[in-house]
Amino acid sequence: MKIRSLVLTGFGINCEEEMAAAYQLQNSDVKILHLNELFLGKYSIHDFDIINFPGGFSFGDDIGSGKVLVNKIKYKKLSSGKYFIDEIDKFISKNKIILGVCNGFQVLAKMGLLPNVNGNYEQEVTLTNNDSGKFEDRWVKCKINESSKSPFLKKGQFPNDIIELPVRHGEGKLIIENEQIKTKIIKQSLNWLSYADNNGIITDKYPFNPNGSELNCAGLINSQGNVLGMMPHPEAFLSLYNHPNWGKIKRENPNISEEGQGVKLFQNIINHLKK
């Protein structure tokens, strides 16, 4: 069985080719579609097993990252008379998967899909300007939460449960609406990926934490475990040679796999869906 992967594009999304390549490496059927093709009814999201919201600068981030795109999705009425957000709700209820990376994470958060601890698709968190006050474009280390329900990355898949990925964002600071929501996120282990220092210790210190996120959050998952958002870009580390220090890594570990660490995320997604 081939998993069918939908990669969205349009309106300033610009990481669709890298995201599609990640699934092609897993022998998945991949379709890159402009959102308008879905809005006009040319295709249905229900023909796919996973929807991917890639990174980019949707609508130029002119009114906060992802906000205009969110409004377009939430309030778009389809020819069937249904709203597009209702189709997304139906997609999630079938235990299919939604992944949002960087700008895609911002969209999922502002759409109310993440973390959605109250189950009503009301926005509970936001992603706003980095504490540094500037765009951060570099590599970070992230610690995987071993208590998370996430099927996407698991304990023991990386040394010390640390994955290294690039970040490229100006608005990556997660802010949680209130303490009640924060408590639910912690209790349910929805903060599945956290920024860490060179020793693998979760930290709020800059530059290891590039944005100052609450809970040092680099990624959130919903309670159901099938909607995932993350700021670092796994699709940008599909080959060891994507890493800026690949030469030293290769010299010190001559037999190391030439796969980039980001590949494991997409392998896990495909294997999970096949099950």
Describe the model.
With 275 residues, this protein is α/β, with parallel strands linked by helices. It has one domain (4-274): Rossmann fold (3-Layer(aba) Sandwich). It is built from 8 helices and 11 strands. It has helices at residues 16-24, 35-39, 67-74, 84-93, 103-111, 179-187, 246-252, 262-274; strands at residues 4-9, 29-34, 50-53, 97-101, 125-128, 136-144, 162-169, 173-176, 191-196, 217-221, 227-230. The chain has a 9-stranded mixed sheet with strand order 2-1-3-4-11-10-9-6-7. Strand 1 (4-9), helix 1 and strand 2 (29-34) form a beta-alpha-beta unit. The longest helix is centred in the C-terminal third of the chain and has 13 residues, at 262-274. It is globular, with a radius of gyration of 18 Å. The termini are close together. The model has no long low-confidence stretch (mean pLDDT 93).
Question: Could you give a quick summary of the protein structure above?
Answer:
This protein is an alpha/beta fold and 275 residues long. It contains 8 helices and 11 strands. α3 (67-74) packs across α5.
What is the CATH fold-level name?
Answer: Rossmann fold
Shape: globular
Please indicate the percent range of residues in DSSP E strands (runs of 2 or more).
15-25%
Describe the main β-sheet briefly: 9 strands, mixed
Structural class: alpha/beta
Q: Total helix count? A: 8
